[in-house]
Model the fold of this input.
Amino acid sequence: MYKLVKTLVFISLSLIFCDCTMKAQDLVTRKSPGDTKAQRLFKRGMKYQMARESGKAIADFEKAAKLEPNFIDAYIQIGAYYYERKDFPKAEANFEKAIALDPDYEDKLYYTSAVAKMEQKKFSEAVKAFELFLSKKSKYEKLNIKAERHIASCRFKSENDNRTVPFDPIPLGPGINTTMLEYLPSITADEETIVITRNDGFQEDFYFSEVVNGKWSTARPIKSINNPKTNEGAQSISQDGKMLFYTVCDGKNDFGSCDIYFAEVVNGRWTKAENMGSNINGPAWDTQPSISADKKNLYYTSKRKGSKGGSDIWMSTRQENGVWAKPVNLGDRINSTGNEASPFIHPDNQTLYFMSNGHAGFGKDDIFYSRRQADGSWGTPINIGYPINTASHEGSLVVSADGKTAYFATDRMNKELKNNNRIDIYSFDLYEEARPQPVTYVKAKVVDAITKQPLSADLDITDLLGKKSYYQETIDDQGIFLVPLPFGKQYALNIQKEGYLFHSENFALEDMKRSTDPFLMIIELHKLPPKEVVSTPKEEVISEPIVLNNVFFETGSAELLPISISELDRLYQFLIDGPELKIQLNGHTDSKGEELDNMTLSEARAEAVKSYLIKKGISSQRLRAKGFGETKPVASNDDEAGRKQNRRTEFQLF
Done:
């Protein structure tokens, strides 16, 4: 037998994934006895290979193998040629010939032959071939790890080869997609603003589009963020559209090769972008951020020390002082020995979509999703299914707040049209099983009750059931805010501004199965009367009634429910901050029951709130309680929705 080669060097098939075959020009020849014609042809073929004249090279290799049927290295080179051209049947046949001639010649042949079988969907044969490679206990540790992953993927493909999920992608239209490359979409909770990365072949920049008359408008560059000296990409827009987290590579003052930056919208303008600092960014590659709906957690891809594979998904939490903490690895269920990337945390804060080549899938990189468990850990990732995932590389996926629509970029459809270089953005209806938990949102504008001019104010949304703050923000001078609200909770919304009476709302979303339309609101704040007016005792009230929407009682009782404490404490603080203020507490009921009983109940409920404030330390001289029973309805008593509005507790200044 001729054994001219003993070292095989593997090549990367693409920038996206790395299953490998031989690089013929790097093979080291070894002389054997004699100077046969087959050997001379082989050497000439190697020279052609070095000169990148592969057509002439393969002709010489095949002639050499024909002259000498036991010429192992000729079969290896022929197999490498066909493998690189994705002619896997011929590649497999030649690798198998080499193995048959000498089973101990080179362990890598078993691996490459197994990959060729896998590419032909000969999954059972591929599993056996990978297992045979592993049994060799070869020194190639990286290939051993890949072989184990391939075995899992082959078994997965064998079990799921005929299973499909609903998938009907629709291009977003000419406002978004052009002859250039568009990819990495991110979208706001109301699905009215989208930010994309556009590549003209020389530069990557951000563009945004808004819905106008039901269609995406022509995308415009974000000029204040785009930098002609760097490429910007891999962005995540916050659900309210006011923050943008993105990646810059080779920036002037970066900590590593790629760093994460952020910018904010303040009074309608983007601020100057800032590097997120050394806790988020390090010497390694940090990219592909995804910000949670409450803006408290940042998920991103990093190759930092501590990663379990090539790249892992990490998470950093924003602390109370506003500083981002050092990130934590999401753990073994999410991160594998392969690469995980492109995380997207849905506004439900319970469902994570990401890309991986380390979990069993259909192709080189598949899209997976995982759900947060009751103990806070992440559940076993689920492959999102074929044909969303294919044998090719899949990119990032983002999902709308309501969970019904997914957005992604692909070149698949354009390849079918023989336009291989074009990547466009598509949307599709996400099938039921892969949807996140339901999420709605509140979108509101805060204005002065008299002038109707927008107001800056402090916003706080509290999870009444969990008894903790869910979202806090200082609304800018435009007065607009948008906050996603996951189901399964009851929320108290409070708006405060110095010199104004505070405002509260309640959103009862405990029922996970019930969907609801977004809450679109105009919130009017009433100015406090001048101090000289409120400091003079009066019998009559001197302000509009302010409903305490988050004060609740036991049914038919004046006993305060525990979830009322947050609102009552806010009222207490309001009185502490304004020591000159005096309030009248008003109790109201619906019309069910006897009129006298309703009057008594309403008085008792107003007194209960008064007593709570007195116990907290508010002087009784500043408080009075009054019941109105069913006499002042604000809605119809003919249905439960109206009766619920009529059962209320208010306060007014006097």
In short: The chain is about 25% helix and 30% strand. Residues 1-34 have pLDDT under 50 and may be disordered. Residues 170-434 form a domain with the Neuraminidase fold (CATH 2.120.10.30). The two ends are 106 Å apart (CA to CA).
